[in-house]
Amino acid sequence: MTDQRAVREALRTQHIETPSWAYGNSGTRFKVFAQEGVPRDAYEKIDDAAVVHRYTGVAPTVALHIPWDRVTDYGDLARHARERGIGIGAINPNVFQEDEYRLGSVCNPDPAVRRKALDHLLECVDIMDVTGSADLSLWFADGTNYPGQDSIADRQERLSEALRAVYDRLGDGQRMLVEYKLFEPAFYTMDVPDWGTSYAHCVDLGPRAKVLVDTGHHAPGTNIEFIVAFLLARSRLGGFHFNSRFYADDDLMVGAADPYQLFRIMVEIVLGGGLEPAAGVAFMLDQCHNIEPKIPALIRSVLNVQEATAKALLVDAAALRGFQREGDVLSANAVLTDAFATDVRPLLAELREDMGLDPDPIAAYRRSGHFERIRAERADGAAAGWGA
Ligand code: AOS
Ligand code: ZN
Ligand code: ZN
Ligand code: ZN
């Protein structure tokens, strides 16, 4: 049997980071739908992230994206976050949104463009020094569209060089997380297409380089929990960008498309010790709320991760090991399916009451009148969104 007190303790200490870009307007390449009450700048995105934390109790940091969240004084922004009861989490550089990056950023054939991209990455470490952020999340849109367009091998060399320069610049307590993505925006080769490429670069660099697993960045049918177990066992799982996908990088709410997959991932985390703070696994969301209201969607997403984690914590590990040793396939599998089938909502409601929170965070948010307030307050001025 699992110890309910230990389950609750573990759930209290799990932190789920929300992304600043999920609070702004977003869309597809066809249309960005403007919503009411959307933050007008980085300060207001932090205000909204603080609201998500206030109702969930487990989302105490927000990731920034530079330059979308560029401000003149990052110390002031960090202070603003602290005053709102949260902190600034991972810094996400952007080396994909300028014309110079047509042929890539750090893998670009032109050394001047590579230099520009590297300078931006280094600037982001300077920002981390000021905000107190521990993680630099690196995602490169680099790749090629046509066979022969560029040398695959040379591009890997250029990537290594840039990663090395950034790694050597990291300060004490700072890490770099290297995200991979199968395709998009490049369609023939991506320069970091999969976890193996990311892992190899991280191993070359040293222990503070870790792999970032975005759940939407794999081929359909990929066994993500296998990747998670493998990386965790080798201390190379830096963290997640959680989201749901039906087709490609859909960036829908985590736990919406396939809660069983999220559970299986969390089972590997729990069994592999990945919930221990010392494991250093960062649980971050990377989502966009194109058609649904953003703050309740982020609350829902945090709760979905928490529910999957609670179910994973209910897995009877001793029984599971026993059945595995005996080769009792059906009983071993039933240990997982029993935990998955458990309704953890009462347990989570109790946990929230212990934490001084409303047991139903979404209902509490709706009742609070917060949305009506920000809709009025933010009626003038341009809403923040992609590229803003
Ligand atoms: C892009 O597909 C990646 O998921 C990035 O992690 C992320 O969406 C981007 O960096 C947000 O700015
Ligand atoms: Zn991502
Ligand atoms: Zn993505
Ligand atoms: Zn995604």
TrEMBL record:
Q: What organism is the protein native to?
A: Actinophytocola gossypii
**Protein name according to UniProt:** L-rhamnose isomerase
Keyword Manganese among record annotations = yes
GO terms for MF: L-rhamnose isomerase activity
Q: Which UniProt keywords apply?
A: Isomerase, Manganese, Metal-binding
Q: Which residues form a coiled coil?
A: none
**UniProt-listed Enzyme Commission number(s):** 5.3.1.14
List residues of the Xylose isomerase-like TIM barrel domain: 75-249
**Which of the seven top EC classes does this enzyme belong to?**
isomerase
Q: Does the keyword Phosphoprotein apply?
A: no
Q: What SUPFAM superfamilies does the record tag this protein with?
A: Xylose isomerase-like (SSF51658)
The cross-references to NCBIfam families, in alphabetical order and at most eight, read: RhaI_grampos (TIGR02635)
